Every structure is written in structure tokens, then in C-alpha cells.
């Protein structure tokens, strides 16, 4: 049996799939420790999970959109987070003596800690941000990101520069998407696509199921955590799009109190939290910003989508959903209610979208999810057992865009 | 002393900062301005995060006003140079700082020397409204908590307009007052704050916006930061109480420096009350001096934007909303595949010499974030190979 240390970021969309994998490893008899903020992780991981606590530190808010969002993600979040969490992660490595680290692609400190300890480690990709390398056509942007990682490496007191891209473990890359959605990845060659890793979440006993009218079709609207003005503006257009459909459609909108003005109460339910996995089997369509978790959760249940991407990997995911025919994409910033309604009705009424979503669902099921990820992580134990301290053989990508 | 106007007030402001320089620096460090916190974030006990919070405010204004790295900056009311050293340091800006206080200017120059940026940050004892700098000599006019001291705010906006180059940025953060009528008690609170802090009056954020527009600025935006900065007056952060302990020490200070030094100590509780009751507000403003158009570039803006409109599937209203300074990344949210399609459409319309995707690929991340439609039009104007250099509107938007 092995010992696994999990390192992620305090972001729900990142921790949820990794939590499913850690639970699968624990079920298979392995010992798992998480290093991170206990106040954030505990509600996700449950009362029995072992957590090496690292205090949560406030970082600068991220820009909402575009390249500015990419810049602030690295400058204001990924790099500072690496700096403040590295000592705690390294303490956990010293105390727990893991055989393998499972590291979020954006938790650069985990990669550095694994290098320093000479341990095998896996990169886990809860987003598709890095997988399709959207910046490969912008070499200076890619070089700038490499520079941020190199700075984190140097700040950690590591000699020289990172031996390879810290987002991509030379040992294993686990991505929570499937080839039926993303197509086979042309790089790196150690990537396994296991599909979504879904774990049971605490039940939402407050959800007003008596509101639910089984005679109507149902839409879930969820666009993640946004700044108030962006959310208000989008939700107002969503409500206008839905208004004439009340006889046939009920919608659940995930939004903080007060961000949706005057929804028609019988037709549109606004709640800040909803039991997404309980709703999914009952849904006819999802309107989403295209976060990978929501997209994959919907497709894992064969539910087609209307995707309005905002930033990060969302445009990539939206493009993939449209390409495989499992939904439509709209422009988040400017789509008007009439267009949104037309796209939503198309997705609801044209069986081709649901059929495509079902194809993706079946391929996800075959990909194996959390259990498959756990089996791949177990293979790293063999490397660890043979392992003598010192650097591992480095299966470094040959792609020229990634400086060694 | 009653705050006056004009020269009398300037003398009072000069004197106020001369006599409180060491007090502020001792208590607040190099940043003589508010701190900035996230919602729900509590200031560290005893001001442990003072520098982080005040430094954060500087970075927030840099972000909000979109101050480009490497800019030439006029810092109006530079204090002892804390923000200017940030701009001149990591951001590589060249900064001219002005303050009414000779002591602040001297201290700021010392600090620039110590920080090794004296070549890029210089500080002068000058009135912000008569600095003598030539027209259009700055990319950015930066006023961080100084506008409250200026009685003639319309003149400030006019002078900022004169000093900025076309396309340049005005970045303001300022104390302000709630928009609308105040009742007698609220007016009295404001009067006391003004008196102790040597300020003529407060304007509301809305009034600042109107003044900027009246001076000819464009793309004016404001943000209310009151909740984010109010912690600055939390007693444990402001540490005013510590100095209040010694009545003797206070009397001694007043004897040495004049009784107006005590305004420094009165500010804390009054400001706290002001923020708590919503009477005192705090906000930032950004505004752009309109760019002078090159007719060949101007003529290309709409057709170039129209080609993008076709790529992203938008309508005429969208096209009408595009102005020269609209950002390709942050405003239009052009994604990489849309950029590629736009680039192809541009090369079809304007010749193979136009390779927008290749041009953007050569830009670093800061330039990509700042890229405007006018920049794209200028690029097309400079690289078009369709033999129609001065011919306006060859795109599909011919009308």
C-alpha cells in the first residue's frame, strides 16, 4: 500500500475531481494526506480525511477576462500561492513521507516540493487550460509563463532553472476530460484522460423540491463565481430569455442573493447553492460558463449545453462542446436574450444535441473516472519502490515550444 | 486655523506636511495614504500588514487605471515617494513627483537614492497647478490622495489634460463625500475633518467624474473603494491611540510645532465615523485624454472592427460601441481562434503584408492586454499592401 500527498489550490473546481481520486485511493487501502487550507478542504473532503493544514492567505482578486485574467492568474495567484504554501507542503513531505505526490497543474509548489524530495509525482489537470496550450501561438506569453515558474523555482532556493515545465510531471499527467470531448492530446505522451471524477457531495436538504414541476423541462444556469456586475448583467439577459418559456421550462439559476432582479418565481428558482449532482439526471439542458467541471458533469449525465465562456479554459471547453455537437456556444459578454433563447430552444428541441451528449457520456463512463486515475497513480508506486534518492529519469517532452 | 483657499491654503498644506512628515513616516511608513483590504479581511493586529495594505492600494490603482509599465508619470502630491518608488521600481516608470512640502520632496529624493532609482524618480517642491512642465509631457498623471487638498479642482483636471500626451491616462484616488445633501450633523463632521486635515472641501465621486468630463477627458470610470479602505481608520491599524497616550508628549509637540500638528491625531476617530456612517467615501477615477487621430488610421478603425464583427457574429450595435481605445482583449474578448480568423480577413482585405496574428505573436503579455482597436488600425495602415494607403474604408463597411 502506498502513501499519497495531494496538493491543490483552494478552488472548488480544482479540488472536487482531485477529492474523488483521493477517495478512490483511500478505498483501495492507500494512505492519503492533503496539504492545504483545512477550512477550505474539510467541507469538500469530509470529516475523515487527513489534512496537513496550511493557513489560507488572501491573494489579489483575479481579472475577470481575457489575457489580463491569464496575467493576473499567474502574477497574483499561482506564484504567490506557491510561495506561501511551499514551507507547509515540505513539512508535510517530511512528516508524512509520501511515496507519490498528486499535484494540481497550477499548484507549482507541489511540483517544486516533489523535485526537492526526489519523489515521483503526477500532474492533475482539473482544467483544460494547460492541456491544449492556448498560448503556443503567442510565444512571448508562453515564455512569460515559463519565467513566472522559473521565478517560483528560484525563490524556493532551487538551483538553476526548472528541469522541465512544472505544469507537466515527467511521470504522469491525469486529465479530467475524455478524448470524446477533447480529442486525443498530441502532447504530452504520458497523459491519461480519465473523464470526469465525480464524488458524492454533502446532500442539500434545503432544496425546495416541491417547487419542481415534473411536467415541465428543466434547465440549470450556472456561470461560476463572477464579479457582481458581470453576473447581474448576464443573469438579467438569461431571465429575459427564459421569460416567454415559462409554460414549458423551469430554470434553476445558481447565483448569490440579489444578483437576479425580479425572476418569475414559479418559473425561475434562484439559489446560491444547489445540489448539482442530484439535479443532473433530471435536467434537459445546462447553461454554463464552460468550466470543465460543469461541462463534464453535464455530459457525464448526457445533458447538452449552451456555453457562454468567460476566461481561462472556458473558451476551449465551449469550442469542444460545439465541435462534438453536444451544445452551442454564445458570447458571454454580448449575447442578447433573443439569441440565447433561440440557442437554448435548439439544444432542448433538437435530439441531435442530446444524442451527441450521450456519446460523450458513454465514452466518459468507459474512461473510468476517479478509479482509473487511482490505478494510474498506483503505477507510480513501483517507480517509488525502486527509487533511490536523486532525480528520476526525466521523460521530458520533446516539443520545442517547451524549453527544457 | 481655518482652511482658506489659494495661497493661504497651499501654505497651510505645506506646513501641515512639513510638521507631520516624521509622524506619518513613523506610523505609516513610506505610504502616506489608506490601505486596501478584501471584503471581510481584517487588518493585522498592531498594523502588522500596514505596508502590505498600503502597497496593495498603490497596486489596485495601477490596475484600475491601467497604468502601463515604463510610463512617464507626473505624481501630483507625491508625499515622501512611496507610490512613486513602486512605479519607478518594478514597473520601470519615470516619475516626476511634486509636493508643496519641501521636506517631503527632500525625504522622497533621499529614499529614491537609497532605492537606487534616483535616475528615474525625482521630486520637487512645486504647486501642482503651476509645475512648468511642457504640454503633453506625461503618459500618466497620477494623483493618489492629493486632490482633496486642491481647492480648484476644475483647474486640476484642465492642467492634467494639458500635461498628458494624447491617449494618456489620468489616475486618481481620493477622499470624497457621499453624493447628495448632508444633514447638519454630517456637515459638521465633514467640517471638522476638513479643518484638521487642511482640506478646502470634498467632492463626491460623481462630481469628480463630471469635472473630468467637463475638462474633455474620455472613457471616464470611477470605483467606490470605501469598504476596501475603511479599515485604515481602525484604531489598531492607524495606531493613533498609541500617541494619544501621552498628553504631555502632545503638549510638547504642539509647543514645538504649532497647535495645527494636532490635526494629525484628531483625524482617526473622525474619519472612522465618516466611513462608518457613509458620509466620507473613497474612490478612484481613471480617464483618458482623447488621442489625436491620424486620418489614415481613423478611417480604418470602423472597417477593421467590422471585419472582426463578422468573425465574432455580432451586429451593428456592437460595431457602434467600438471606439479607438476599445481593447481587443479585455473589452472585445477576442479569443485566439477569433484572432486568427480576423487576421485572415484583414490580409484578404488589405494584402499579404498584413499579418495581425504574427504581429500579436511578437508582443509580450502586457502589450497584448493593452492592444486597442486603434493599434490594430495603425498596424494595418502601416503594413497594408493593397496599394490603397490613403484610401479610406476598403473593407466590407463601404458606405
TrEMBL record, chain A:
<dbReference type="InterPro" id="IPR050426">
    <property type="entry name" value="Glycosyltransferase_28"/>
</dbReference>
<feature type="domain" description="Erythromycin biosynthesis protein CIII-like C-terminal">
    <location>
        <begin position="266"/>
        <end position="378"/>
    </location>
</feature>
<feature type="compositionally biased region" description="Basic and acidic residues">
    <location>
        <begin position="393"/>
        <end position="404"/>
    </location>
</feature>
<feature type="region of interest" description="Disordered">
    <location>
        <begin position="384"/>
        <end position="404"/>
    </location>
</feature>
<dbReference type="GO" id="GO:0016758">
    <property type="term" value="F:hexosyltransferase activity"/>
</dbReference>
<dbReference type="GO" id="GO:0017000">
    <property type="term" value="P:antibiotic biosynthetic process"/>
</dbReference>
<dbReference type="Pfam" id="PF06722">
    <property type="entry name" value="EryCIII-like_C"/>
</dbReference>
<keyword id="KW-0808">Transferase</keyword>
<dbReference type="GO" id="GO:0008194">
    <property type="term" value="F:UDP-glycosyltransferase activity"/>
</dbReference>
<dbReference type="InterPro" id="IPR002213">
    <property type="entry name" value="UDP_glucos_trans"/>
</dbReference>
<protein>
    <submittedName>
        <fullName>Glycosyltransferase, MGT family</fullName>
    </submittedName>
</protein>
<dbReference type="InterPro" id="IPR010610">
    <property type="entry name" value="EryCIII-like_C"/>
</dbReference>
TrEMBL record, chain B:
<feature type="region of interest" description="SAM motif I">
    <location>
        <begin position="73"/>
        <end position="82"/>
    </location>
</feature>
<feature type="region of interest" description="SAM motif II">
    <location>
        <begin position="136"/>
        <end position="144"/>
    </location>
</feature>
<keyword id="KW-0949">S-adenosyl-L-methionine</keyword>
<comment type="similarity">
    <text>Belongs to the class I-like SAM-binding methyltransferase superfamily. gTMT family.</text>
</comment>
<dbReference type="Pfam" id="PF08241">
    <property type="entry name" value="Methyltransf_11"/>
</dbReference>
<dbReference type="InterPro" id="IPR029063">
    <property type="entry name" value="SAM-dependent_MTases_sf"/>
</dbReference>
<dbReference type="GO" id="GO:0032259">
    <property type="term" value="P:methylation"/>
</dbReference>
<protein>
    <submittedName>
        <fullName>Tocopherol O-methyltransferase</fullName>
    </submittedName>
</protein>
<dbReference type="InterPro" id="IPR013216">
    <property type="entry name" value="Methyltransf_11"/>
</dbReference>
<keyword id="KW-0489">Methyltransferase</keyword>
<feature type="domain" description="Polyketide synthase-like methyltransferase">
    <location>
        <begin position="39"/>
        <end position="313"/>
    </location>
</feature>
<feature type="region of interest" description="SAM motif III">
    <location>
        <begin position="163"/>
        <end position="172"/>
    </location>
</feature>
<dbReference type="InterPro" id="IPR020803">
    <property type="entry name" value="MeTfrase_dom"/>
</dbReference>
<keyword id="KW-0808">Transferase</keyword>
<dbReference type="InterPro" id="IPR050447">
    <property type="entry name" value="Erg6_SMT_methyltransf"/>
</dbReference>
<dbReference type="InterPro" id="IPR025774">
    <property type="entry name" value="PiNMT-like"/>
</dbReference>
<dbReference type="GO" id="GO:0008757">
    <property type="term" value="F:S-adenosylmethionine-dependent methyltransferase activity"/>
</dbReference>
